[in-house]
Amino acid sequence: MTKLSTDLRHSLVLKSRPSGMPEAKHFELKSDPIPTPGPGQVVTRTIFLSIDPYMRGRLSDRKNYAPSVQIGEVMTGETVGEVIASADPKFAPGDIAVGARGWATHLVSEAASLHKLNGALAPLSTYLGVLGMPGVTAYSGMKDIGEPKAGETVLVSAATGAVGSVVGQLAKRAGARAVGIAGGADKCLFAQEQLGFDACVDHRNDDLSAAIADACPGGVDVYFENVGGRIQAAAFGALNLFARVIMCGMVAQYNAAEFPAGPNLGFTVAKRVKIQGMLVFDKPERFAEWRELATPWVLDGSLAYRETVIDGLENAPEALAMVLSGGNFGKMVVRV
Amino acid sequence: MTKLSTDLRHSLVLKSRPSGMPEAKHFELKSDPIPTPGPGQVVTRTIFLSIDPYMRGRLSDRKNYAPSVQIGEVMTGETVGEVIASADPKFAPGDIAVGARGWATHLVSEAASLHKLNGALAPLSTYLGVLGMPGVTAYSGMKDIGEPKAGETVLVSAATGAVGSVVGQLAKRAGARAVGIAGGADKCLFAQEQLGFDACVDHRNDDLSAAIADACPGGVDVYFENVGGRIQAAAFGALNLFARVIMCGMVAQYNAAEFPAGPNLGFTVAKRVKIQGMLVFDKPERFAEWRELATPWVLDGSLAYRETVIDGLENAPEALAMVLSGGNFGKMVVRV
Predict the structure, then answer these.
(1) Fewer CB in a 10 Å sphere around the end CB: N or C, chain A?
(2) Nearest to A261 among B248, B264, B276 (CB)
(3) pLDDT for B71-106, tens place per residue?
């Protein structure tokens, strides 16, 4: 694809709903004049676009926690951008802001929905990853549901992903044993060597239950669920009395037309397990808390993170497919 | 069966493990001399024996929250009894006590495990039902997990059972809409007319989901689970955002050799549902709280309850089968 001209606004709109994995053909690249802001609005030029598993849900017309993207609408997604025009006193051209949403080179936002990053000390892309929505998801899930204690064991699926990698490091900071589940030896090695996990189970393992039992000799007190399917079944089998399960996502089934059956829930009674779903936006105050808490850790290198950066807005559909198939490594962002 | 002699201790010991519904043949009636207490012990003569769904779990060698009853052991169960001999200063002959456990006419207990009911104002059988373990189960589940608020809807399965009937009445006291699920028109009528439920769904209904939706026009905020199976599936389908599910029991599968699959848990993320298992003995302080709170309600008639009383220890297995098949009506006790 040729480089996009910079004097137009380019955007990817939904052309048709994927029935399985999303591909480029499900989106249409549109080019329009760069918009101007209405009263209280701000126009940003997108620098980084975040690509996250939840986006698959927005492509479906299945009822979910947020409305679907409609055919012909610009696909949604968090961005970091530079203000190029403002009709609100709180923003001026040149400001850097996070919060504008959309797969587009330029976005119009209400000023109130943006957070200014002027003087940001960490790399801008981290405000979409370790310091952004995925990092806050890990933080809120652990703080509000998981509540790991010293000496407990925390297990997390998609352990090298944007959320899972923070979950494991928060477990270690709480004095707990951190065990990851990831796809492949490379990711498992990274989890242990770079993220500080005590152990990591390759989910391509034939006997996942036995591998989890080996990695968690004291059982599992907190399970942070990002994947679902057979990983969930194996993880649930290792839960201890009074275990907490943070239901954050089930990416394994995001492309499925029909959801498979789940676990018989008798174990929740026998073991007094708590299984609780979360959405990061339910506790918006956690965003500022986390940025304040974790920015020093990013700066001093004590909170590790990894990103996969793809260049070009037009490659966003491919980036999403990678995230949904586990083909990425760490937080996925598109440099627009 | 002839009347049991009163100068011996009679007990029902487990003879073989039932593979489905427990029957009399799985137990053996034994007669021994009446025991004498060792230091710190008390011997009670059983007045009432409680029959509860959890007992099915004790008959199985499947791992559960409490150890199984072994072959040749006396079957377990709560009782109210009269002290006939005591080797502990806190109890004297003639005292009435709750807490001795076993399907037997006479029981030896550590004094510390008994609670004295001298001067009890409510009928003695209520200390096994509405004021006892089932009542405390309802109270603790609602207080510690369900937390119903005024205007919300509380749905409970086995609504006329010992636990469910208290759940519904606690829902009403919290200002919530109380909806029951019960088996048959008689029980549903009783739930509405005597227990004060706003609506009650007959689970023999073909389209249970539609019936629940009709009875819960605002959806379900708290679901108190006693049954499982298709009732659970239908109830889960009606849950609102941020609903709480108290996993108390799943009596529908207690006789099953293999547990059926359960619900796909994607909805817990989409709706941020909390599903939490409970065991009443995890919060022993709730027993005294509940007796203090609810005794006046029992005495003034504002907390309704219903009991099925069966005469004769030898009929305890049949009573248990009735509880497991829904053949009882309200709290099941055996008058020993």
Answers:
(1) N
(2) B264
(3) 999 999 999 999 999 999 999 999 999 999 999 999
Q: Which residues of A touch B (CB under 8 A)?
A: 63-65, 225, 228, 232, 241, 247-250, 253, 259-279, 282
Summarised one tens digit per residue, pLDDT across range B158-197 is: 999 999 999 999 999 999 999 999 999 999 999 999 999 9
B-chain residues near A56 (CB < 8 A): none
Give CA torsion, residues B299, B303, B304, B306, to 10 deg. Answer: -80
Residues A96, A213, single domain; the answer is: no
pTM of the model as a whole = 0.93
Does residue A52 belong to any structural domain of this protein?
Answer: yes
Is residue B291 a part of any domain in this protein? Answer: no
What is the residue range of B32's domain?
9-129+305-335
Give the per-residue pLDDT at A121.
Answer: 81
Domain match, B137 and B115 both: no
Nearest residue on chain A to B282, alpha-carbon basis: A272
Do B143 and B255 belong together in one domain?
yes
The whole-angstrom separation of Cα B268 and Cα B271 is: 5
Domain-embedded: residue B299: no
Residues of A with Cβ-Cβ distance to B263 under 8 angstroms = 261-262, 265
Q: Which residue is listed with tokens 């808390």?
A: A289
* B256 shares its domain with B173: yes
**DSSP per position, B145-188:** II---TT-EEEEESTTSTTHHHHHHHHHHTT-EEEEEESSHHHH
Judgement on whether residues A246 and A218 belong to the same structural domain of the protein: yes
Tokens of B61: 């060698």
CATH number at residue B257: 3.40.50.720
Residues B103-152 have pLDDT tens digits of 999 999 999 999 999 877 899 999 999 999 999 999 999 999 999 999 99
How far A37 CA sits from the closest chain B CA (Å)? 33
Same domain, B242 and B222: yes
For chain A, how many structural domains are there in total?
Answer: 2
State whether A202 and A248 are in the same domain: yes
Dump pLDDT digits (tens) for B200-255: 999 998 899 999 999 999 999 999 999 999 999 999 999 999 999 999 999 888 88
**A208-215 and A229-237 helices, crossing angle to 10°:** 50
In a domain, A301, yes or no: no
For residue A242, pLDDT over 60 is answered with yes
Sheet holding A199-202, edge to edge: A199-202, A177-182, A153-157, A220-225, A239-247, A274-277, B274-277, B239-247, B220-225, B153-157, B177-182, B199-202
ipTM field: 0.92
Same domain? For B137 and B238 the reply is yes
Domain of residue B24, CATH code = 3.90.180.10
What's the confidence (pLDDT) of residue B181?
98
Nearest to B269 among A247, A271, A272 (CB): A247
